Amino acid sequence: MTPRTEDQLDRRLRASLDEATRLAPLANPEWPGLPLAHQPAIRPRPLWRLAAAGAALVAATATVVVVNADDGRRVTAGPPPATVGNPASYRSAVDLPAGPQGSWAPGGGPRTPLGALPEVRADPTARASLAVQVGRGTRWVWAVAGADDRRVRSALDSSVAAPAALSADGRSLAVAFPGLVKVVDLTSGEVRDLAGPLVGGPARSITWASDRAAVAVVRGADELEPGGAIPSTIEVVGLDGTVRRFTTRTRPERVEWSPDGGRLLTIGPGLDGSGEVIDLATGTTTAIPAGPGALVGWYDDRTLLRSQAGRPDEEKGPGAPDGSTTTSRPEPPGFRQGAILFLDLKGDVVRRLDTYGGSLAQLLPPLDPTRRYGLLGPSQGGGPLPYATVVDLQTGVAVGSLTDPRAVPYVIGLGAGTVIVADELPGRFEAKAVDWSTGRATPLAVLAFRDEGFSFAPGSQAAVPR
Amino acid sequence: MFYRGAYPEAVRLAVLLVGVADAEDVVQDAFAAVFGRFEQLDRPAAYLRTTLVNGCRQLDRSARRRDRRHRLVAEPERLQPEHRELLDVLGRLSLEQRSVVVLRVWAGWPDDEIAAALGCRPSTVRSHAMRAMARLRKELQP
Question: Which A positions 361-380 lie with beta carbon below 8 A of chain B?
Fold first, then answer.
């Protein structure tokens, strides 16, 4: 076809150029020299190119630019010196403790194929616990695969679905029923009514404090009050049975505990990035104003994290930290940039980490008290990501990347040289450790369910029928 | 992170400017230049693109000295005839004209940014574009 108009020619050009790039034998888009999972090999290059690429690797990982929001001064966070020039020492410099650790609570509505809400915890000794809520007719069953005895425990059985959470050590399951919180000790099988009766309607989420001494439950009616507000109640229920109750009108979906357990950050439901910080000691609530991205959680006891998607220069506008408005500039497709904003407890930006390769999708469990790790990806929330990079939030140094969504549908934690992922497959859930270097996956736990019951296989052991 | 995010698109752009044989080498060189001064850059992505286009121009000059033509695709026989025809014409344009067409139509850059990358004035970009489109239209006549 001969193009008659400018538009026709443009369209034909675009189609042909797209076709040309589609046929281009694109080699490994990863950092040269860093062996990553599921990537084709980089083709050999002359030595001087390898040297340049090595320098690029060091620079790429070593020079994340941080802009101080107060005075706009640019400072640079560098990695430990051990990384310089030696990609082999790059991972070890991150200094992860031995053994995997992770958690996974994707939330959301009923999932296919059996309406399960899976929860996964893998503890530092490489044992995993999985909890799955499965609808069976008019009953809901929480099947828990405890790592200790390799037996499936049908922990709870109820006529209603309710949010549940495994504790960080994978040994307790808390379920927030309407008006009641039950905790199952997965070691002894003991079920306790933690507190009740409680008020406030059906629960939307339940979250364990990091010290496992309490849970926070978000409850709220789905009906509007006169005036349009939807009041929600946040219950902080201690394992000792104490209950503290806070009311909020922001209708949060969930809360995040500060690392010391002294404050709660409410998150959601809107996408405007607003929230509240509740001081549990004083009961005071501080509103975090809307901003250019969703609140994600806590960096430390005094600092919150906001994930800014898109390009930093495009995101400026109403609500941006500096309040400025700039014209967006089109970037070629594929340049995914973002920023991680560190906020004080009033919501003011105190530090900024510009990111390339996506925005902060989720936080990963702290492996030691001095470090925080985040998962960068193209979208937020617990879900399969087409690519993901784990980054040390203090230094901005990337720990590693994964790009195969079939192999890593959900990233839940980190281990020494491994990333812990959870897989949701037809009829079963798996938690496994994937080696950064080789891409080899080691199963930690498998929870399979069939019509007649569940089976659980820790590690590579065969499934044990119930 | 920057490398990872920017690499695939940089290679695609380089493929369209200098062809598959040289694209990755030019991109590697551009990244090496960017990371040498990453801390000083306000907009590393923009700097990368300018460096990349500059690298393509240098390569093009040396290729022309050796009377070498750029093959935009490695296996043209895998293309549909109409794509093959268009890419063949595009490959015969001067690098400046091809760059303007690719950056304008495919990458969606504004003229002033193309001008900055090519080291010329925006009005020159427009005249490159006019000539390139006129030639494409003429050569694509049945």
Answer: 376
Distance CA A443, CA A461 (A): 9
Specify burial of residue A137 (Cβ count, 10 A radius: 0-12, 13-18, 19+): exposed
Q: What are the tens digits of pLDDT across the range A304-321?
A: 999 886 543 443 333 333
Sign of the four-CA dihedral B109, B113, B118, B123: positive
pTM of the model: 0.54
Residue A198, φ and ψ in degrees, nearest 5: -110, 160
A60 and B2 within 8 Å at the Cβ level: the answer is yes
Residues whose CB falls within 8 Å of the CB of residue A422, separated by 6 or more in sequence, listed in order: A104, A118, A120, A409, A410, A412, A429, A430, A431, A432
Highest mean pLDDT among A84-88, A280-284, A428-432, B34-38: A280-284
According to DSSP, the β-strands at A418-425 and A428-435 are antiparallel
Contact of A356 with B5, CB cutoff 8 Å: yes
Interchain CB distance below 8 Å, B87 and A14:
no
Query: How far apart are the C-alpha atoms of A66 and A55, rounded to whole Å?
Result: 20
Chain A positions touching B3 (Cβ under 8 A) are: 30-31, 56-57, 60, 356
Which residue, A21, A330, A31, A77, is CA-closest to B31?
A31
- Joined together, the tokens standing for residue B89 give 């014409």
Please state whether the peptide bond connecting residue A269 to the residue before it is cis, i.e. omega within 30 degrees of 0.
yes
Residues of B whose CB is below 8 A from A25: 20, 74
Min Cα separation A393/chain B (Å): 13
A402: nearest CA partner in chain B: B4
Q: Which residue of A has its CA nearest to B102?
A: A17
Residue type, A419: V
pLDDT digits (tens, 9 = 90+) for B72-100: 776 777 788 888 888 888 888 888 888 99
Quick one: which of A6, A60, A11, A14 has its CA closest to A33?
Answer: A60
CB A3 to CB B137 under 8 A? yes
